[in-house]
UniProtKB/TrEMBL annotation:
Family classification: Belongs to the class I-like SAM-binding methyltransferase superfamily. RsmB/NOP family.
Protein known as: 16S rRNA (cytosine(967)-C(5))-methyltransferase
GO MF: RNA binding; rRNA methyltransferase activity
Taxon lineage: Bacteria, Bacillati, Bacillota, Clostridia, Eubacteriales
Primary location group: cytoplasm
UniProt keyword annotations, A-Z: Cytoplasm, Methyltransferase, RNA-binding, rRNA processing, S-adenosyl-L-methionine, Transferase
Length: 436
């Protein structure tokens, strides 16, 4: 191996400087990397992102100035070095130190070599292990590499044990879960087909048409994917569509639909009969809806560029409406670790937008219509508080109990030992009164 650490450093710099999503940067790594080298780069980049708070805590014990004040490439090299020492058993400690010094040279930071060497060797001399701070909340923040505001918020909302379990399981790589396209195949037939293509697939617990794929490599390389036999979709999103309870022949609105996973699953439950209007505010994302539906053989989906917060004059009623609103995404931080480091002030305007989308969509509900409000986040402000505000101000609507939500009308799903899906919130609302 040679040069992978420089590729990892460049990727980390790009994610930090341009606020790019890690998955997108890693999808576009330079060509020519072998599978092993690519896996190493991805493990290092994801690992450093995921454990940033833990790594910075270790570094802070060996630096005279605050970690944030370091030159960005030097800081990234130090984080990568500590990550290799703490979490990469395949890298001998001496290699982690020497390669970090070499990397500084390759990055044009030769003068930082002695600092990097000194810090990493001092950590090794102290045993090379993580020593947690005494304060329990600080310790949880360092252990799970989650900002303190997030630790406190999760603990206050879900209790200490559930929050700790969620944070711990958010450090485990997410499985690749897909939804079998029931318009074209069955779970058993798809498992056999994938086996022929060299990919191991097994049924996922809890969803009849969900499979977990192992070592699939790029999906674009699989004929079964190109033929539209499945799409990628986490368990929580599949449950969300089940809660919508769409049936063949219905008129359905997906108000925030792109990239389209939930619309696609809904169309499959509808057996490609009825009408499915799938909207998104961004034109380029609407194109994703068109492409996905085409690949999967869905022809009831009408993609539309539309702002879901702006009422549409003369829209006929829908029997089912999905508001899978934009959110802070904390439930999927195991897939995009950079999410957890965002300044929570950036989320301030989300609840009002989410409320507007819900309120506007409710205009299109007829009697007996059902609306699902969902997010992939775990903040009450974006979940319970939005639907409560809506229900409090709209007496013609009521909570709607669903069997798939355990008999309740809303449910929060937390990734944990017994549940491998993303963190997610689902609430069901029905119309009880007539329109004013
Ligand atoms: C959580 S994602 C939806 C995921 C999608 N339901 C799926 O399963 O693939 C939220 C989407 O809402 C879109 N969006 C954001 N603001 C919107 C608005 N005002 N009106 C409509 N769509 C919006 C975003 O572009 C994004 O694609």
């Amino acid at each position: 191996m040679g040069g992978e650490r420089k590729i990892a450093l460049d990727a980390l710099q790009k994610i930090e400087e341009q606020e790019s999503y890690s998955n997108l940067v890693l999808e576009r790594l330079p060509g020519g990397l072998g599978a092993r080298e690519r896996a190493f780069v991805c493990a290092l980049v994801y690992g450093v992102l995921e454990r940033r708070i833990t790594l910075d805590f270790v570094l802070s014990r060996y630096l005279r100035r605050p970690v944030e004040k370091l030159d960005a490439p030097v800081r990234a090299i130090l984080r990568m070095g500590v990550y290799q020492l703490l979490y990469m058993d395949s890298v001998p400690p001496s290699a982690a130190v020497n390669e970090s010094v070499k990397l500084a040279r390759a990055a044009g930071k030769t003068s930082a070599g002695s600092l990097i060497n000194g810090v990493l060797r001092a950590f090794l001399r102290d045993g090379g292990e993580l020593v947690l701070p005494g304060d329990p909340k600080k310790a949880a923040s360092v252990r799970y590499s989650a900002p303190q505001w997030l630790v406190s918020s999760l603990m206050e909302t879900y209790g200490e044990a559930a929050a700790a379990s969620f944070l711990e399981h958010s450090l485990v790589p997410a499985p690749l879960t897909v939804r079998v396209n029931t318009l074209k195949t069955t779970p058993q037939a798809l498992i056999a087909r994938l086996r022929d293509e060299g990919v191991e697939a097994a049924p996922a617990r809890g969803e009849e048409s969900a499979l977990i794929l192992k070592d699939s490599g790029s999906l674009l390389g699989l004929p079964s994917f190109r033929e539209g036999l499945f799409h990628v979709q986490d368990l929580s999103s599949q449950l969300c569509v089940r809660a919508l309870d769409v049936r063949p022949g219905m008129r359905v609105l997906d108000a925030c639909a792109a990239p389209g996973g939930k619309s696609f699953t809904a169309a499959q439950y509808m057996e490609n009969r009825g009408e499915l209007i799938a909207c998104d505010i961004h034109e380029h994302k609407v194109e994703l809806l068109r492409q996905g539906a085409g690949r999967l053989g869905i022809n009831i989906l009408t993609p539309r560029q539309r702002d879901a917060a702006v009422p549409q004059e003369g829209e006929a009623a829908f029997e089912r409406i999905l508001c899978d609103v934009p959110c802070s995404g904390l439930g999927i931080m195991r897939r995009k670790p950079e999410i957890k480091y965002k300044d929570p002030a950036k989320y301030r305007e989300l609840p009002d937008l989410q409320y507007k989308i819900l309120e506007t969509s409710s205009h299109y509900m007829g009697r007996d219509s059902i609306l699902i409000y969902s997010t992939c986040t775990l903040r009450r402000e974006e979940n319970e508080q939005v639907v409560d505000r809506f229900l409090d101000g709209h007496p013609g609507f009521a909570p709607c109990e669903r069997e798939v939500l355990g008999g309740a009308w809303s449910r929060t799903l937390l990734t944990g030992a017994d549940y491998s899906g993303d963190g997610f919130f689902i609430a069901a609302i029905k119309r009880t009164g007539t329109k004013k």
